[in-house]
Automatic annotation (TrEMBL):
Species this protein is from: Streptomyces sp. 900105245
Stated name of the protein: L,D-transpeptidase
Entry superkingdom: Bacteria
Alphabetical list of Pfam families matching this protein: Big_10, YkuD
UniProt pathway: Cell wall biogenesis; peptidoglycan biosynthesis
L,D-TPase catalytic domain span: 174-295
Amino acid sequence: MHLDRSAGRTAGRLGAAVTACVALLSAVGCSTDAGTGVRVADDAPRTHDSTAAPAQTHGRTAHARPAPSTPEPAVLARATVNMSDGQTVGVGMPISVTFPQPVPLADRKAVEDWLRVRTSSGATGAWSWVKGHNLWDGQRVDFRPSTTYWAPGTEITLRLGSHGVRHFTIGRSLVATVDAETHQMTVVTGGRTQRIPVTTGAPGTDTWNGTMVVMDKQPKVLMDSRTVGLGDEYRGDYYWAVHLTTSGTYVHQNPRADTEAGHRNVTHGCVGLATDGTAKRFYDQVRIGDVVKVVGAKKDRVAAGNGYGDWNLTWKQWLAHSAAGATTTA
């Protein structure tokens, strides 16, 4: 594995260690092993939380919970969160909390009860235990709203019991839809629409289907096929790399896209953009938490824990892995 460290890191704080574009069914794209976030600060929590009127969600009533009556779980003292205090992220970014060891089933409701989420929009949402890529079951719990994505401009506060607080802001909306059959990416930003020719995974190394969220981005990544057992098939720098999955899917500049974008799928699973400035323009407008959806690829839908694939679960499926159920966040 090799990571070119000359380029530094961008916002996102996910600490991705990049390896290579791979031709494996279980890890398509530019292989990576992303971290889970940054240590929470020891800010003092508030002594009380506000309440809100019940909200209806898919036939069920969601209530803002009162202060927890159970003892605070000790595991919260070593929790990590995927966003830094004051960060502005895209509409697709879930709140993701990771623990150094699995949380037993019997303790998960108490953990959810002490993870307090408040939003300016008063959204209905829920925590759900997600099997993270390269993590054990019970090591990661994510929070997302019941509706599709956060509302732009939403202010979010996360309190990890008595051990920390984080404030986030949801920025403008950007949703990019990649159609592997038409070889086009449609980018909708604040009501403005762009169409960009792309090339996706070739037959046998197809790109994941489904909804992904930008984890981080780097201006240059060295990708080496030897690091994933593919011999000398490729080795070189790829520029303007937007990271989508822990297993290694990226949107990045690819010289082959200069002739193949809009016509054929030729990559090892990544989404390739031309070198004529197309890749850099997309890179420059994308922020952490923006949404990239892939349709028409001949591959399974990306798993919820492979990066931030949370939106690939229905609300009913999401609640099935929640110990405390839905809540309002006013």
